[in-house]
Amino acid sequence: LPAVPRWLRVGAAVLLVTIPWWPREQAIPPGQLHVTVYDVGQGQLIELRSANFRLLYDTGPRFRSGFMPLQSLWPPGQDFDQVMVSHADTDHAGGVDALLADHQVAQWWAPAGESLSIPSQRCEQGQRWQRDGITYRILWPPSGENTLSSNDRSCVLAVYAGEHSLLITGDVGNQVERQLLPQLNGNVSVLVAGHHGSGTSSGVQFVRETQPHHVVFSAGRDNAFRHPADDVVRRFRQQHSCLWNTAQDGALKFTLIPQQPVTFQPLRALAGGHKRC
Questions:
Q1: pLDDT at position 7
Q2: What CATH number was assigned to the domain covering residues 32-266?
Q3: How far lies 159's CA from each of 16, 185, 191, 269, in Å?
Q4: Fewer Cβ in 10 A, N or C end of the chain?
Q5: Is the dihedral angle over the CA atoms 88, 91, 96, 97 positive or is it negative?
């Protein structure tokens, strides 16, 4: 066979490097929940998948340059059953325009009173639904509440797969956290820490009563806010929680499977000697 011209070999190599490659999704058995907390810098974007259902909680930030990390996560044309925007802050709602431009969303959720360019159903305490054996509950905000700050209006989502639970609290602060406690059934398997680990959230009573087995901080590396706060980390350590941080671990994948331990897969392996739990 004739030799392949050098220009063709080089061109093929460039294409292999520059064309994005997305791994094929594996089928998910009913009753299992697969969760990814993406590394989007100082912001939040969480994907929840079950056998026939796909939900995003928050859409990540939009930076001053206009770049939205969400644009790099999937090829265009993705179908999402639901997207829940916790509140309108840019680090949580910054990727809305990218979703509208490149993907299809069947249903949007957002709290009342937030300035978002999407027609959405209001998050209200007491709403619940089931998909593929997974139960979803909205714990906050209460219906008709219009005096809260934007952070404290955040949609709070609790998800249950068998005996396991996932709690995502957006940016709500200590006072709202205490009002959530009567709605929670026992300890939390995985908590996505409120407000990226800010000292205004993850209050002493909330941490003590939820006793989360795993805690995820969705924060940017060397962020100007110093999230997560030292006091917050200390509180969770006192409860022997396993701590994960997108700033160090990269994207975090974990699976909730009834009758099995929760398993985490960080994108990056930390150096030896790092205390996780």
A1: 42
A2: 3.60.15.10
A3: 39, 11, 11, 27
A4: N
A5: positive
Rounded CA-CA distance 31/175 in Å is 33
Q: Could you tell me the end-to-end alpha-carbon distance of the chain, in angstroms, rounded to an integer?
A: 59
Q: Report which of 23, 136, 36 is spatially closest to residue 82, judged by C-alpha positions.
A: 136
Tell me if residue 49 falls in helix, strand or coil: strand
Given a contact cutoff of 8 angstroms between Cβ atoms, the answer to whether 252 and 267 are in contact is yes
Q: What is the pTM of this model?
A: 0.89
- Residue 220's identity, in one-letter code, is G
Domains in the chain: boundaries: 32-266
CA distances to 72, 79, 270 from 22, in Å: 10, 15, 24
Q: Is the pLDDT at 23 greater than 70, yes or no? A: no
Reading the block at residue 192, the tokens are 């996505």
Task: Read off the pLDDT of residues 159-188 as tens digits, 9 standing for 90 and up.
Answer: 999 999 999 999 999 999 999 999 998 899
Average pLDDT rounded to a whole number, residues 219-226:
78
Strands 190-192 and 164-168: parallel
